[in-house]
Specification:
The structure is a homodimer of 178-residue chains. By secondary structure, chain A is mainly alpha-helical. Chain A has helices at residues 7-18, 25-48, 57-69, 74-81, 85-97, 119-139, 148-162, and strands at residues 72-73, 101-105, 113-117. Mean pLDDT of chain A is 85; it is low at 166-177. At the A-B interface, helix 1, helix 2, helix 3, helix 4 and helix 6 of A face helix 1, helix 2, helix 3, helix 4 and helix 6 of B. Chain A binds a DNA duplex (30 and 30 nucleotides) through helix 3 and helix 5.
Chain lengths: 178, 178
Amino acid sequence: MAGPHTLGETERQVVDRVGQLPLDYAAMAVVSNLFRASNAVRNHLERTVLSSQNMSWTAFVVLWVTWIWEPIETRNVALESGISKATLTGVLTTLEKRGWVTREKSETDGRLVLVRMTPAGRELMQALFPEFNLEEQRVVESIDAGTLDTFADLLRAVTASVEPAASSPDEPPSSQDR
Amino acid sequence: MAGPHTLGETERQVVDRVGQLPLDYAAMAVVSNLFRASNAVRNHLERTVLSSQNMSWTAFVVLWVTWIWEPIETRNVALESGISKATLTGVLTTLEKRGWVTREKSETDGRLVLVRMTPAGRELMQALFPEFNLEEQRVVESIDAGTLDTFADLLRAVTASVEPAASSPDEPPSSQDR
DNA sequence: CCGAAGTTGTTCGGGTACGAACAATGTATA
DNA sequence: TATACATTGTTCGTACCCGAACAACTTCGG
């Protein structure tokens, strides 16, 4: 959405198409670059780090969430990973098939399913995550270290303005799939 | 990846799992929040604006790129949209099926395919894009107006650090699929 | 207690999403 | 002007990705 063309050039072209409609170009720039950056980073990390394990970005995120919080209920895995519960079902099946996680029905609540790492899954993450973090570092290396926290806060502000409900930590907002 | 848990709480838990390995938590926060924000905004816009046309985010981006730059070669649509050419083939088939764009072989180069809007496609974008931009505005409304440009620049810096090659505008970097 | 209302994970259908392999086409080299 | 080399869009296989509908289960109101 912000490809090889100049900013001004794109804007001029947009004005030509939209006509006199008033547009917020600053907001447009942020949203389009948000996606460009997100896509670029995901694909980069998939190619440099995750491809060695034939793993997708989402699979890695789910594995990471499970690694950090296990045992964890699937609804919370979906919440933490930022994917829908429908998507999670498929991803978990994949991860289970590869022997990295296990599913287990809750004893106290028959509706819930708990996810745990296998030893193989834990070994994998112990080796893979430092490598992943090193590449994360490379992705932001051109940005002044003192600015990184501000950057993260700006991103949190965007997320918050879209997902208003967020009561207290450790107590997810009532019930939404994502 | 940065769900209902506190920042410090997640960090403490990560330390517990990773052990003594040195990690860049600032970089980690930026990358994970980049994806959280990106996902949240995409899903929000799909639900609020795009669902009326039963359109996905990617379909909208492709339609937008075509709208702004038509007639445009498919390789450049993929480049501007930030998706692979393989993905584009499927999306274009969908958009063509719905009567919003057309495919046309280039007369000067038999390998190229040109994409154009149909009148119906143009009408749709003329109505949909202002609505879309209004929602983009809402997504960043909590951010100080003077900071938006800086924000966009930070996002561009991330993209640039991952996709280093970028010669001159109007002249895509030799040949990469995305 | 017992039916209504709510919650949870799965299934289903349609649509992305990628890399690799491919055939068609264009270009460069000798 | 052949013959290698490069480029382009499509196809293929596999893996997401979501909303809607669903069955299993829990909880709440009377």
